[in-house]
Write a structure and sequence with these properties.
The chain is an all-alpha fold. The chain has one domain: Arp2/3 complex 21 kDa subunit ARPC3 (Orthogonal Bundle). Helices cover 73% and strands 2% of the residues. A hairpin with a 6-residue loop joins strand 1 and strand 2. The two termini are 31 Å apart. It is a multi-pass membrane protein. It is found in: Cell membrane. Keywords: Cell membrane, Cobalamin biosynthesis, Cobalt, Cobalt transport, Ion transport, Membrane, Transmembrane, Transmembrane helix, Transport. Pathway: Cofactor biosynthesis; adenosylcobalamin biosynthesis.
Length: 229
């Protein structure tokens, strides 16, 4: 997921930066609105950002040029603070990881945020919303969100690499080759992230539901839900 500098062609990383900005602008507006509505949102958002930084800093080598496997934490973040806000904090996380940890690069923040902070966050969030709308238990909805968000991150990351590096191969075949390169490490990580997402969300809801005032008021958690976790 952390694609390094020099891997993507300039027109490719420039394009992904533009895609990122499309989500960052409404994300910043949403954060400002929520902070005005509830001052507790800002420190909670910062706490979620730190969690995403720590979770996505864990990395495992893969046989894919200029990249590596990671858990992401963005599906959980999207459930907690919203997917647009997650796109913003993910971009910030990727910047600091590039500067201080050497993960990824400055030119590839756009591409990495599109895969992790946008595709991973939104896909996980939509799974969560769809399953909760169907009255699935919170632990199941959260677990599926974590699993899907993780794998979608790497589907998109593989596509970004294939787009720049497919050469004489077809884009689709090179895309699948890159994704299969991730699979041996990423599938177990996705399963672990599924369990982690369900466990953390269950702990917050049962022990500190006051941390999620907007989440509770939106009707995602109703009376008796904590007994059905």
């Amino acid at each position: 997921m952390h694609i390094e500098d020099g891997i993507l062609q300039p027109k490719a990383w420039g394009f992904w930066y533009m895609v990122m900005v499309v989500f960052i602008i409404p994300g910043i507006k949403e954060i400002k609105r929520r902070v005005m509505e509830n001052l507790a949102y800002k420190p909670f958002l910062a706490m979620v950002g730190v969690a995403v930084f720590v979770i996505s800093a864990l990395h495992f080598p893969v046989p894919v040029t200029g990249s590596c496997s990671h858990p992401t934490g963005t599906a959980l973040a999207a459930i907690l603070v919203g997917p647009f806000a997650t796109a913003v904090i993910s971009a910030i996380v990727l910047f600091f990881q590039a500067i201080f940890l050497g993960h990824g690069g400055i030119t590839t923040i756009g591409a990495n945020d599109v895969s992790m902070g946008i595709a991973g966050a939104f896909s996980g969030y939509f799974c969560w919303k769809a399953l909760r709308a169907g009255h699935a238990p919170i632990w199941l909805a959260a677990g599926v969100a974590g699993f899907v968000g993780d794998l979608v991150t790497y589907l998109v990351s593989a596509f970004e690499l294939a787009q720049s590096l497919h050469g004489n191969h077809s884009l689709t075949s090179q895309w699948m080759i890159f994704f299969l390169g991730y699979a041996p490490t990423q599938v177990p990580i996705a399963i672990a992230e599924s369990i982690f997402t369900a466990t953390v969300l269950k702990a917050i809801i049962t022990r500190r539901p006051d941390l999620l005032p907007a989440f509770v008021s939106a009707g995602n958690i109703k009376q008796g839900d904590t007994k059905k976790l």
